[in-house]
Amino acid sequence: MLVNLQEIMKFAEEKEIAVGAFNTPCFESLCAVIEMAEQKNVPVIIEHAEVHFPCGPLHQIGPVMVDFARRAKVPVCVHLDHGTSMEVLEQAVELGFTSVMFDGSALPYEENKAETRQVVKYVHSHGVSLEAELGCMATVGGTEGMYTDPALAADFVSATGVDALAIAFGTAHGIYAKTPVLNFDIISEVKKAANLPLVMHGGSGVADEDYVTAIQRGIRKINYYSYMGAGAYQKALEYGREHPENSHLFQELSKVAADTMKEYLDHIMDVFYRLK
């Protein structure tokens, strides 16, 4: 069942849970996410980021994602992650995506606010939801992040009309070189000031108890992929070494990778949706 982000976030707020937003840059990841969401009977967000376009061009993987969502037995939002240009956002909307993210976090505040407002007008006119980002997340092994300012968040949300806000409180994209130190007070303060669903990027690799705390403070969407993708890669490599007679057949490695991703999803969905 294809739905937009607003419907998913309404469910998350009512249940006080976080809905998993899983990158699906390949067929194996897409199948794994939909299968596990149906098995656990939970709504889910499948998303595709610009950084994954080289291995999964939007015009190729996008229609497949939308088709899977329409045929799913659970509510599925199809989301473009970290869109940085109007051209890409428009392409996603035309392909049938029900939610997009405009990432203007690297822009000066007023410019981010003005551009986000224009994007909101466009996507809302097409029945599509909009996620934006305020603050600047750290990059693993790279730049330091800048925490989201709760006062600016309130102004930003009021001025733009966004449906969800990604905030910076200590997470980073990619594989962590050391355990992240999260400032949960920022979540609480932004939630109180801005009063809308909050999004956690750089979600994989965080301790289960930290997920729980973040959700309790107001996180309603958690982006999760890097550790799942890396784990699938490692398992496929191990299988290739242990089964040289089959390692020349890609479908054998593909199945191992998909099964490994389902193992990650089985656990993390229980945490996000408070199923156990």
Folded structure, characterized:
The chain is α/β, with parallel strands linked by helices and 276 residues long. The chain is 50% helix and 17% strand. The strands form two sheets. Strands 2-3-4-5-6-8-10-11 form an eight-stranded parallel barrel, surrounded by ten helices. Strand 10 (198-200), helix 8 (208-217) and strand 11 (219-224) form a beta-alpha-beta unit. Helix 6 packs parallel to helix 7. The chain is globular. The relative contact order is 0.15.
- Helix and strand succession? EHEHEHEHEHEEHEEHEHEHH
- Strand residue percentage: 15-25%
Biggest β-sheet: strands ordered side by side in the sheet: 2-3-4-5-6-8-10-11
What level of helicity do the residues show?
40-55%
Count of DSSP-assigned helices: 10
- The gyration radius over C-alpha positions equals 18 Å
- Total strand count, please? 11
- What is the distance, rounded to the nearest whole angstrom, between the alpha carbons of the first and last residues? 25 Å
Q: Which sheet architecture does the biggest sheet show?
A: 8 strands, parallel, barrel
The average pLDDT value, as a whole number, equals 92
Low-confidence stretches: 140-144
Q: In one word, what is the shape?
A: globular
Q: What structural class do helix, strand and pairing data support? A: alpha/beta
